[in-house]
Amino acid sequence: xxxxxxxxxxxxxxxxxxxxxxxxxxxxxxxxxxxxxxxxxxxxxxxxxxxxxxxxxxxxxxxxxxxxxxxxxxxxxxxxxxxxxxxxxxxxxxxxxxxxxxxxxxxxxxxxxxxxxxxxxxxxxxxxxxxxxxxxxxxxxxxxxxxxxxxxxxxxxxxxxxxxxxxxxxxxxxxxxxxxxxxxxxxxxxxxxxxxxxxxxxxxxxxxxxxxxxxxxxxxxxxxxxxxxxxxxxxxxxxxxxxxxxxxxxxxxxxxxxxxxxxxxxxxxxxxxx
Length: 274
What we know:
With 274 residues, the protein is α+β, with helices and mostly antiparallel strands. The chain has helices spanning 3-22, 40-49, 53-60, 172-177, 206-212, 229-235, and strands at residues 81-88, 91-99, 105-117, 120-127, 137-140, 142-149, 157-164, 220-223, 245-248, 251-257, 263-269.
Protein backbone atom coordinates (compact mmCIF):
# COMPACT_ATOMS: atom_id res chain seq x y z
CA UNK A 1 0.00 0.00 0.00
CA UNK A 2 1.36 3.46 -0.90
CA UNK A 3 2.38 5.89 1.91
CA UNK A 4 -0.61 8.17 1.23
CA UNK A 5 -3.02 5.24 1.48
CA UNK A 6 -1.28 4.15 4.68
CA UNK A 7 -1.75 7.60 6.24
CA UNK A 8 -5.39 7.60 5.11
CA UNK A 9 -5.93 4.19 6.72
CA UNK A 10 -4.43 5.38 10.02
CA UNK A 11 -6.53 8.55 9.91
CA UNK A 12 -9.75 6.64 9.25
CA UNK A 13 -8.91 4.14 12.00
CA UNK A 14 -8.41 6.92 14.54
CA UNK A 15 -11.42 8.87 13.23
CA UNK A 16 -13.75 5.90 13.76
CA UNK A 17 -12.35 5.34 17.26
CA UNK A 18 -12.66 9.03 18.04
CA UNK A 19 -16.29 9.33 16.96
CA UNK A 20 -17.18 6.14 18.81
CA UNK A 21 -15.66 7.55 22.00
CA UNK A 22 -17.03 11.04 21.48
CA UNK A 23 -20.56 9.78 20.90
CA UNK A 24 -20.58 8.50 24.47
CA UNK A 25 -19.48 11.83 25.93
CA UNK A 26 -21.64 14.62 27.25
CA UNK A 27 -20.89 17.88 25.47
CA UNK A 28 -21.15 19.70 28.78
CA UNK A 29 -18.26 20.07 31.20
CA UNK A 30 -19.49 17.18 33.37
CA UNK A 31 -16.63 14.95 32.31
CA UNK A 32 -16.52 11.29 33.11
CA UNK A 33 -12.86 11.66 34.08
CA UNK A 34 -11.00 14.83 35.04
CA UNK A 35 -7.99 13.76 32.97
CA UNK A 36 -9.95 14.17 29.75
CA UNK A 37 -8.79 17.78 29.90
CA UNK A 38 -5.17 16.74 29.37
CA UNK A 39 -4.31 15.09 26.05
CA UNK A 40 -2.01 12.11 26.57
CA UNK A 41 -1.74 11.79 22.80
CA UNK A 42 -0.77 15.46 22.59
CA UNK A 43 1.91 15.03 25.23
CA UNK A 44 3.51 12.25 23.16
CA UNK A 45 3.26 14.30 19.97
CA UNK A 46 5.13 17.13 21.71
CA UNK A 47 7.65 14.74 23.26
CA UNK A 48 8.51 13.46 19.80
CA UNK A 49 9.17 17.01 18.53
CA UNK A 50 11.09 18.35 21.53
CA UNK A 51 14.89 18.41 21.49
CA UNK A 52 15.14 18.01 25.28
CA UNK A 53 13.02 17.94 28.43
CA UNK A 54 13.21 21.67 29.06
CA UNK A 55 11.75 22.32 25.62
CA UNK A 56 9.18 19.56 26.17
CA UNK A 57 7.90 21.20 29.38
CA UNK A 58 7.66 24.57 27.64
CA UNK A 59 5.75 23.20 24.66
CA UNK A 60 3.10 21.30 26.64
CA UNK A 61 2.32 24.54 28.48
CA UNK A 62 1.78 26.59 25.35
CA UNK A 63 -1.91 27.21 24.69
CA UNK A 64 -1.69 26.81 20.91
CA UNK A 65 -0.25 23.27 21.22
CA UNK A 66 -3.60 22.03 22.59
CA UNK A 67 -2.32 19.61 25.22
CA UNK A 68 -3.33 21.09 28.57
CA UNK A 69 -6.83 22.18 29.62
CA UNK A 70 -6.57 21.28 33.33
CA UNK A 71 -7.76 23.40 36.24
CA UNK A 72 -7.34 20.95 39.11
CA UNK A 73 -7.61 23.45 41.95
CA UNK A 74 -10.70 25.10 40.50
CA UNK A 75 -9.34 28.66 40.45
CA UNK A 76 -10.62 29.33 36.93
CA UNK A 77 -7.16 29.27 35.34
CA UNK A 78 -5.11 26.58 33.62
CA UNK A 79 -2.54 24.82 35.81
CA UNK A 80 1.13 24.94 34.84
CA UNK A 81 2.44 21.40 34.19
CA UNK A 82 5.97 20.58 35.35
CA UNK A 83 8.07 17.75 33.93
CA UNK A 84 10.50 15.91 36.23
CA UNK A 85 12.61 12.92 35.28
CA UNK A 86 13.84 9.90 37.17
CA UNK A 87 16.32 7.31 35.96
CA UNK A 88 17.21 3.81 37.02
CA UNK A 89 19.88 2.19 34.84
CA UNK A 90 18.49 2.28 31.29
CA UNK A 91 14.90 2.99 32.32
CA UNK A 92 13.63 6.58 32.33
CA UNK A 93 10.38 8.06 33.60
CA UNK A 94 9.11 11.57 32.87
CA UNK A 95 6.55 12.64 35.49
CA UNK A 96 4.04 15.33 34.53
CA UNK A 97 2.53 17.08 37.55
CA UNK A 98 0.72 20.24 38.64
CA UNK A 99 1.26 22.16 41.88
CA UNK A 100 -2.11 23.03 43.43
CA UNK A 101 -0.72 24.95 46.41
CA UNK A 102 2.61 25.55 48.10
CA UNK A 103 2.53 22.05 49.60
CA UNK A 104 0.28 20.04 47.29
CA UNK A 105 1.23 18.42 43.99
CA UNK A 106 -0.84 16.09 41.81
CA UNK A 107 0.70 13.78 39.20
CA UNK A 108 -1.09 13.86 35.86
CA UNK A 109 0.72 11.26 33.77
CA UNK A 110 4.03 9.47 33.33
CA UNK A 111 6.04 8.72 30.20
CA UNK A 112 8.01 5.50 30.64
CA UNK A 113 10.94 4.79 28.31
CA UNK A 114 12.85 1.54 28.22
CA UNK A 115 15.77 0.55 26.03
CA UNK A 116 15.13 -2.82 24.38
CA UNK A 117 18.32 -3.27 22.38
CA UNK A 118 21.01 -1.46 20.41
CA UNK A 119 19.34 1.55 18.82
CA UNK A 120 15.95 0.38 20.09
CA UNK A 121 13.59 1.79 22.71
CA UNK A 122 9.88 1.79 23.47
CA UNK A 123 7.72 4.21 25.39
CA UNK A 124 4.19 4.65 26.69
CA UNK A 125 2.37 7.39 28.54
CA UNK A 126 -0.06 6.47 31.33
CA UNK A 127 -2.62 8.74 32.96
CA UNK A 128 -2.70 8.90 36.75
CA UNK A 129 -5.53 6.83 38.22
CA UNK A 130 -6.84 9.82 40.19
CA UNK A 131 -7.61 11.59 36.92
CA UNK A 132 -8.14 8.82 34.35
CA UNK A 133 -9.77 5.43 34.13
CA UNK A 134 -7.52 2.64 35.40
CA UNK A 135 -4.80 1.59 32.93
CA UNK A 136 -5.29 4.49 30.53
CA UNK A 137 -2.19 3.96 28.37
CA UNK A 138 -1.25 5.63 25.07
CA UNK A 139 1.57 4.73 22.70
CA UNK A 140 2.80 5.66 19.20
CA UNK A 141 0.76 4.08 16.44
CA UNK A 142 2.18 2.48 13.31
CA UNK A 143 0.64 0.08 10.82
CA UNK A 144 2.36 -2.93 9.30
CA UNK A 145 1.04 -4.22 5.98
CA UNK A 146 1.40 -7.80 4.85
CA UNK A 147 0.17 -9.54 1.71
CA UNK A 148 -1.82 -12.69 2.48
CA UNK A 149 -2.33 -15.21 -0.30
CA UNK A 150 -5.99 -16.14 -0.70
CA UNK A 151 -5.83 -18.41 -3.73
CA UNK A 152 -9.17 -17.26 -5.17
CA UNK A 153 -10.94 -14.25 -6.62
CA UNK A 154 -9.66 -11.68 -9.13
CA UNK A 155 -6.72 -10.91 -6.84
CA UNK A 156 -4.82 -13.81 -5.26
CA UNK A 157 -3.70 -11.62 -2.34
CA UNK A 158 -5.31 -9.61 0.44
CA UNK A 159 -3.57 -6.91 2.45
CA UNK A 160 -3.57 -7.50 6.21
CA UNK A 161 -2.85 -4.51 8.42
CA UNK A 162 -1.80 -4.75 12.06
CA UNK A 163 -0.68 -2.21 14.65
CA UNK A 164 2.99 -2.53 15.62
CA UNK A 165 5.15 -1.24 18.47
CA UNK A 166 7.15 1.82 17.39
CA UNK A 167 10.90 2.08 17.93
CA UNK A 168 11.36 5.57 19.40
CA UNK A 169 15.15 5.46 19.68
CA UNK A 170 15.65 8.15 17.03
CA UNK A 171 13.26 10.66 18.60
CA UNK A 172 15.43 13.68 19.63
CA UNK A 173 14.07 13.66 23.19
CA UNK A 174 14.88 9.96 23.59
CA UNK A 175 18.41 10.36 22.25
CA UNK A 176 18.81 13.30 24.66
CA UNK A 177 18.04 11.25 27.80
CA UNK A 178 20.26 8.36 26.69
CA UNK A 179 23.24 10.60 25.88
CA UNK A 180 26.32 10.05 28.09
CA UNK A 181 26.24 13.71 29.15
CA UNK A 182 22.59 13.64 30.24
CA UNK A 183 21.84 15.06 33.68
CA UNK A 184 18.48 13.94 35.12
CA UNK A 185 16.07 16.80 34.48
CA UNK A 186 14.30 18.58 37.34
CA UNK A 187 11.92 21.41 36.55
CA UNK A 188 12.92 24.73 38.15
CA UNK A 189 9.27 25.72 38.54
CA UNK A 190 6.77 25.17 41.34
CA UNK A 191 3.74 26.83 42.95
CA UNK A 192 3.77 30.57 42.12
CA UNK A 193 7.19 30.24 40.46
CA UNK A 194 6.56 30.11 36.73
CA UNK A 195 8.51 31.10 33.60
CA UNK A 196 8.12 34.75 32.58
CA UNK A 197 6.66 33.85 29.20
CA UNK A 198 3.82 31.77 30.67
CA UNK A 199 0.41 33.35 31.15
CA UNK A 200 -2.45 31.08 32.31
CA UNK A 201 -5.68 31.12 30.34
CA UNK A 202 -9.24 30.19 31.20
CA UNK A 203 -10.14 26.53 30.52
CA UNK A 204 -11.93 25.75 27.29
CA UNK A 205 -15.19 23.87 27.27
CA UNK A 206 -14.29 20.22 26.91
CA UNK A 207 -16.15 19.84 23.60
CA UNK A 208 -13.98 22.63 22.17
CA UNK A 209 -10.75 21.27 23.67
CA UNK A 210 -11.53 17.75 22.42
CA UNK A 211 -11.85 19.07 18.87
CA UNK A 212 -8.72 21.20 19.13
CA UNK A 213 -6.51 18.28 20.19
CA UNK A 214 -7.98 15.83 17.60
CA UNK A 215 -4.86 15.92 15.34
CA UNK A 216 -2.81 14.37 18.15
CA UNK A 217 -4.93 11.21 18.00
CA UNK A 218 -3.90 10.34 14.43
CA UNK A 219 -0.53 8.78 15.28
CA UNK A 220 -1.04 7.88 18.96
CA UNK A 221 -3.60 5.39 20.24
CA UNK A 222 -4.78 3.83 23.49
CA UNK A 223 -3.78 0.28 24.30
CA UNK A 224 -4.73 -2.19 27.05
CA UNK A 225 -1.16 -3.58 27.12
CA UNK A 226 1.49 -2.17 29.47
CA UNK A 227 4.86 -2.70 27.78
CA UNK A 228 7.09 -0.51 29.98
CA UNK A 229 6.77 -2.61 33.12
CA UNK A 230 10.09 -1.62 34.73
CA UNK A 231 9.30 2.10 34.38
CA UNK A 232 6.06 1.58 36.26
CA UNK A 233 7.89 -0.09 39.15
CA UNK A 234 10.49 2.69 39.25
CA UNK A 235 7.82 5.40 39.40
CA UNK A 236 5.26 3.96 41.85
CA UNK A 237 7.14 4.72 45.11
CA UNK A 238 7.60 8.34 43.96
CA UNK A 239 3.99 9.08 43.03
CA UNK A 240 2.50 12.40 44.22
CA UNK A 241 -1.20 12.75 45.09
CA UNK A 242 -2.99 15.86 46.24
CA UNK A 243 -5.22 16.10 49.32
CA UNK A 244 -6.48 19.54 48.27
CA UNK A 245 -8.90 18.14 45.75
CA UNK A 246 -10.97 14.99 45.41
CA UNK A 247 -11.00 13.81 41.81
CA UNK A 248 -14.30 12.23 40.89
CA UNK A 249 -15.81 10.88 37.70
CA UNK A 250 -17.94 14.01 37.42
CA UNK A 251 -15.48 16.79 38.14
CA UNK A 252 -13.32 18.17 40.91
CA UNK A 253 -14.51 18.85 44.44
CA UNK A 254 -12.63 21.42 46.50
CA UNK A 255 -12.20 20.39 50.14
CA UNK A 256 -11.00 22.18 53.25
CA UNK A 257 -8.40 20.51 55.45
CA UNK A 258 -8.11 21.63 59.07
CA UNK A 259 -5.08 21.41 61.35
CA UNK A 260 -6.06 17.97 62.60
CA UNK A 261 -6.24 16.61 59.07
CA UNK A 262 -10.04 16.36 58.94
CA UNK A 263 -11.46 17.28 55.54
CA UNK A 264 -14.79 18.96 54.87
CA UNK A 265 -16.37 19.52 51.46
CA UNK A 266 -16.57 23.23 50.76
CA UNK A 267 -17.91 23.46 47.24
CA UNK A 268 -17.96 21.67 43.94
CA UNK A 269 -16.34 23.57 41.09
CA UNK A 270 -17.52 23.21 37.51
CA UNK A 271 -15.07 24.11 34.82
CA UNK A 272 -15.35 27.54 33.29
CA UNK A 273 -17.14 27.47 29.96
CA UNK A 274 -15.61 29.17 26.99
